[in-house]
Amino acid sequence: MSIVLMYHALYRGSSTAEIDSEDRPYAVSESNFIAQLDRIAARRAGTFTDNQAPDVVITFDDGHRSNLEIAAPLLAERALSAYFFVTSGFIDKRVGFMSSAQLRELSDVPGMIIGSHGLTHRFFADMSDSDAFEELADSRKSVESMTGKACESMSFPGGRYSSKTLDMMRPSGYVQWFGSDTGIVDVSQSFTPASAGLSASGTSLAPMASTLPVSRVAIRQNTQLAEFDRMIAPDEAYYKSLQRRSQAKKLLQRTIGNRLYHGLYKSLSAR
Q: What pLDDT sits at residue 24?
């Protein structure tokens, strides 16, 4: 069994000024991140490769420059690896996010796998089939052109996708894909041992055995160490509680739609 942690931006001290208001609930302070890494380092951590079924997997979404400036050195010091899923349309364009040169630098750090988080950060569940396939293929090619390495892993923006999106994953060049549904990952059911090419770090990624995305658990700004310990234990009662809350949110999403739901989230995050 594996626990996949989902991080976003990090920040130093107490200032989150360089992080957009809607992203701040998921921004983690450097001091909290260090404390969490110390907990992770005591367990078997890694990425999903042919020969590895780690207890804990670290992932980052979006491509904020703190992933390189703060996260990468701390991970490297502890010989920890991680996935970094970047929205390729943000690179070189969005304030606070990595440049293409910085992304290449991150991809050169041993153990770091660069994956896609889409081209525009639009929700795949809201796209036409042709737009979704184009977004999947173009974002992968864009990441590969910036890093010079294979991009074969993907996380869905907002965790939103459709059954047709999942059918497009392998044809568009991916062998691993991650969602935002909370849960404990049964590696034996999620990945197959057959080789499927090289990741951004030169590691052979384990291809998906199922079409369903890999579950993850979000680390928030207010995540305390006691809760974090329950996450990585893993505490099954804790995950059942999270899943009940997640189901309530999904019901609201289906009722009001992705666009209105996300607008409500942005409004509440800005307060």
A: 94
